[in-house]
């Protein structure tokens, strides 16, 4: 699709419709405002003020194959992945590149930021799951969750449990003081999943 439609949740009426020059790959709301980040198939990231119907920032992505975008909890930065082994960080107000995370052996397919904004989890095409110190720009540890591409990763509301899914399994990961380990493997696949807000046990 090339259109985002915004509805009033109470009245269920359409309040806004925004057209884009490209297929929409991913969309996510900023935690601290009415802005959204939109990833397009033409390797571009846009920040849009939904209420004002204003496109604030256009960010060209160096690689093709954009897969996912994520906000930091303070709404100051955006993080993107897809089409390369590098995870990129952007200033959400100016669109300037502010950093990158490198270390994956194959293309990164999914990312998620912890609620405190200090760490990031990412998955790649070979089944690796990396844990990153965002400020330190370094990987603290990594796990191998099968050999199939990671489709989606997620973080629990308490920031202690993580999940990763590939084409045949869902892995639940416990991370306590940097000692990550798979504590449960479910033999079911999912394209996308999330933990319930403020809950570390419900998917």
* Secondary structure: number of strands: 18
**Which oligomeric state applies?**
single chain
What spatial order of strands do you see in the largest sheet?
3-4-5-6
Q: How would a textbook summarize the main sheet?
A: 4 strands, antiparallel
* Discrete helix count: 0
End-to-end distance, in Å? 27 Å
What can you tell me about this protein's structure?
The protein has 203 residues and is mainly β. The chain is built from no helices and 18 strands. The strands form five sheets. The chain has a four-stranded antiparallel β-sheet, with no helix packed on it. The protein is globular, with a radius of gyration of 17 Å.
Question: What are the main properties of this structure?
Answer:
single chain, 4-stranded antiparallel β-sheet, globular
Short account of what is shown:
With 203 residues, this protein is mostly beta strands. It has strands spanning 3-7, 14-19, 24-29, 35-40, 44-49, 54-60, 68-71, 77-81, 87-91, 97-101, 108-113, 119-124, 128-133, 138-144, 152-155, 161-165, 170-176, 179-186.
Write the layout of secondary structure elements.
Layout: E1 3-7, E2 14-19, E3 24-29, E4 35-40, E5 44-49, E6 54-60, E7 68-71, E8 77-81, E9 87-91, E10 97-101, E11 108-113, E12 119-124, E13 128-133, E14 138-144, E15 152-155, E16 161-165, E17 170-176, E18 179-186
Antiparallel strand pairs: 1-2, 3-4, 4-5, 5-6, 7-8, 8-9, 9-10, 11-12, 12-13, 13-14, 15-16, 16-17, 17-18
